[in-house]
Amino acid sequence: SQQGEEDPQALSIQEGENATMNCSYKTSINNLQWYRQNSGRGLVHLILIRSNEREKHSGRLRVTLDTSKKSSSLLITASRAADTASYFCATSGYGNKLVFGAGTILRVKS
Amino acid sequence: DAGVIQSPRHEVTEMGQEVTLRCKPISGHNSLFWYRQTMMRGLELLIYFNNNVPIDDSGMPEDRFSAKMPNASFSTLKIQPSEPRDSAVYFCASIASGSRDTQYFGPGTRLTVL
Question: Could you tell me which residue, B90 or A30, shows the higher pLDDT?
Fold first, then answer.
């Protein structure tokens, strides 16, 4: 069964707005990662946050992690039409196996 | 670097036929993962290898599925016999051995079983 569960399942916003996606998980983790998948393509790694980190930035991306609540959020600021994609969180425990959530479909309208 | 290479990109076959999907990981990566993605079940890990050895195949749905990694630069996922419910996109990903960091995904093989 999938560990990560994203919320919302789908999100539609206007270009320039911020998009926030949330992820919850069930067990202890080593790190949590976010991936993007454009239609018909493979997944592309966006950002990784380790279990001892609380916040991380990469360009227009901001990720937070709350291990006490077993949750993470991905914020995309000043969204662009090119950000339209599905976004997945994935958790890594012991070993190098990743467990992916169901994903959030983001649509950015221009 | 060419990235993870998968072939074929699309496969259409009839129920009962054998299907073989191929993957070439990134050079120097020692771990390889096979995933299946469907609308109903999302992205599922089928099996992964470390240094060509299968480590966890608990995600392989049934005996009709088998995977091999004869060397560090090649892996196959075979379905025999195929069934319509096997229709999905199959992804291969690789990672440096022992790393829990970024997985690099191939473009996927879209399998349709009629």
Answer: B90
Chain B residues whose CB is inside 8 A of the A31 CB are 100-101
Cα–Cα–Cα angle for B57, B63, B81, nearest 5°? 130
Alpha-carbon dihedral of residues A50, A43, B77, B32, nearest 10 degrees?
Answer: -30
pLDDT beyond 60 at A1: no
Local structure of residue A88 (DSSP, 8 states): E
CB B80 within 8 A of CB B18: yes
Whether residues B103 and A98 touch (CB distance < 8 A) is answered with yes
Helix, strand, coil percent values for chain A (each to nearest 5): 5, 55, 40
Is A42 at the interface with chain B, CB within 8 A? Answer: yes
CA distance B81 to B103: 30
d(CA A44, CA A47): 10
**Residue A3 pLDDT:** 58
